[in-house]
Specification:
Elements (H helix, E strand, L loop, with lengths): L1 H4 E5 L9 E5 L5 E7 L12 E7 L4 E3 L7 H10 L9 E3 L5 H4 L2 H8 L2 E5 H6 L26 H7 L1 H7 L4 E4 L3 E5 L2 E5 L8 E5 L3 E5 L13 H7 L10 H4 L1 H16 L6 E4 L4 E2 L2 E2 L4 H23 L6 H8 L9 H18 L3 E4 L3 E4 L5 H7 L1
Parallel strand pairs: 5-6, 6-7, 7-8, 12-13
Antiparallel strand pairs: 1-2, 2-3, 3-4, 4-5, 9-10, 10-11, 11-12, 14-15, 16-17
Helix pairs in contact: 2-4, 10-11, 11-13, 12-13
Bound molecules: zinc ion (ZN) (2 copies).
């Protein structure tokens, strides 16, 4: 279906960079795909960020690419036939830098308003007096869990965060909200606590990084909640409702429910719609089942590794992931991934954190029924 529907307006590179495409939905609504370059390199390459422009009564844009991509995106948007003054608003799928990096520049150039989940509006702010002692107070709450060294963040992130903090955000609430005549948002936390899916007339579903083809989105960690709990009061009081693998799996199940009954739903991910010279069509139900299964298997694999004795998250990561994935910052990402699974395994009482020794298996294997019950 995807291949029959997609109209390539501008050819791009084999990973999708600099392409421009158009979808005409049966109702007549149009969605323009504007992928912007996204370079992390190495084995963790996500491919470009797919930003989507909706040509509705009020034209709006979903996401703005990574930092430095604002101008490029503006040019792409204008070549697709929408002038900067026509853009009514920008909505964010979530607050990761490869999605809101170009936001400030786009807002400056177009005067468009910004809509994002209300957690985003809280996390992009600075709290010099409320920040916990062990975090970098010079950065916004969204960065308090960041593992990148200061030499990196000072060079790459400081300016972006200062600009982002100047933005006025129109807040989108939890659950299901309406932001346009046939445009609805769904709060789907887990990959990020502020993640949204955007439904276009029940014909297309823009899923951000919550559902991706070919690659499995990484879940956040429940531990991140405890650093920002003061900032998120009083609406959010439970870590697992907005952070971590449990929140993520719950959101996947919710998305699966949303997709039920919608035939020919066009699912638009924020990465890899086109990659390595091919289109990736997503069948929502099938892909969500694969993603859930992936996490079940990863939990099982971690338990298997722990059968040999207690291990730290880093030791589990080294045993579980292939060598190339562990290079450079890869080890930190791998460790993070292990920790988010260990949080779920601790909740199911299959694992506990032993003082000095790391994680230890309890001998039980309740995680699958916990995942089923979410
Ligand atoms: Zn993301
Ligand atoms: Zn992303």
């Amino acid at each position: 279906m995807l291949q029959e529907m997609v109209e390539v307006i501008q050819e791009g590179e084999e990973n999708g960079n600099n392409m421009t495409i158009r979808f005409k939905l049966p109702s007549g609504a149009e969605i323009i795909g504007l992928p912007t370059e996204n370079f992390y390199g190495g084995e963790w390459d996500l491919g470009p960020t797919w930003n989507y422009l909706l040509l509705a009564d009020q034209p709006f844009l979903v996401d703005t690419g990574k930092s430095g991509m604002g101008r490029k995106l503006l040019t792409m948007m204008e070549s697709a036939g929408i002038s900067r003054n026509e853009l009514e608003f920008i909505v964010l799928s979530h607050g990761h830098e490869d999605h809101d990096g170009g936001l400030f520049e786009m807002v400056e150039s177009t005067g468009a308003g910004v809509k994002a989940h209300r957690i985003y509006d809280r996390l992009i702010r600075f709290y010099p007096t409320e920040a916990p002692a062990d975090v970098n107070k010079d950065f916004p709450a969204s960065c308090w869990h960041c593992f990148m060294p200061e030499s990196f963040t000072n060079q790459h992130c400081r300016g972006y965060h200062q600009e982002r903090n100047r933005l006025k955000i129109e807040q989108i609430g939890d659950g299901h909200c309406t932001i346009g005549e046939t445009i609805h948002t769904y709060h789907v936390p887990g990959h990020s606590p502020d993640a949204l899916a955007i439904s276009v007339g029940g014909e297309a579903l823009i899923v951000g990084d919550t559902v991706l083809p070919e690659i499995t989105p990484f879940p956040s960690r429940e531990a991140f909640f405890y650093q920002v709990r003061e900032i998120l009061k009083p609406q959010y009081t439970h870590a697992q409702s907005i952070y971590g693998l449990r929140a993520y799996l719950r959101s996947l199940k919710e998305l699966e429910q949303i997709g039920r009954g919608l035939t020919d739903l066009l699912v638009l991910p924020a990465h890899r719609l086109f990659y390595d010279n091919h289109w990736n069509e997503i069948n929502l139900k099938v892909r969500i089942n694969e993603l859930i299964e992936h996490h079940v298997e990863r939990c099982a694999a971690i338990l298997e590794i722990l059968k040999q004795g207690p291990k730290t998250a880093r030791e589990i990561a080294a045993a579980h992931f292939e060598e190339p994935l562990l290079k450079g910052f890869g080890i930190m990402m791998a460790e993070n991934e292990v920790l988010s699974h260990c949080e779920l395994l601790s909740a199911s009482k299959d694992v506990f954190l032993a003082e000095d020794r790391g994680f230890e298996a309890t001998g039980s294997s309740n995680f699958e029924s916990l995942i089923q019950s979410l």
